[in-house]
Amino acid sequence: MSLIGNIEDFADCTATGIVVGSLRLLVLRRGGDIFVYQNSCPHTRESLDPTGGSVASPDGLLLHCQRHAAVFVADTGECVGGPCQGERLTPVAFTLSNGDVYLD
Ligand code: FES
User: Fold this and answer.
1) How many Å lie between the centroid of ligand 1 and the Cα of residue 90?
2) Exposed (0-12), middle (13-18) or buried (19+): which is 50, by Cβ within 10 Å?
């Protein structure tokens, strides 16, 4: 397992792109919950955050691709608006243990 950080390293209701080895990931923290997806938009397979910063809505419930405005449900990764509607972000398995986030 690979440690990617502690939950406190991720600001609440933000989804930030990180790189771990050859993996491009998108990590969302919402309260005590963490969500990890591949940082690869189903529309073009490019990252969601070419301009940097968080791609989460202020309440952390949605993720927005900065390229062509696709909208994803944060909990499921399902695209509910934009050019890849009906497709999904790819979830990445992880374990949250004592606040530390490990890729499985
Ligand atoms: S690359 Fe994400 S909406 Fe086009």
Assistant:
1) 14
2) exposed
For the segment 17-57, what is each residue's pLDDT rounded down to a tens digit? 999 999 999 999 999 999 999 999 999 999 999 999 999 99
Where along the chain do its domains lie?
Answer: 2-103
Phi, psi of 78 (to 5 degrees): -70, 135
Give the H/E segment covering residue 38: strand 33-38
Full-model pTM: 0.96
Confidence of residue 1 (pLDDT cuts 50, 70, 90): confident
Atom of ligand 1 nearest to the CA of 83: 3
Q: Could you tell me the two tokens for 61?
A: 């419930």
Select from 38, 43, 51, 71 the residue to mutate for testing ligand 1; criterion: most ligand atoms less than 8 Å from CB.
43
CATH number of 2-103: 2.102.10.10
Torsion of the alpha carbons at 86, 89, 93 and 95, rounded to the nearest 10: -100
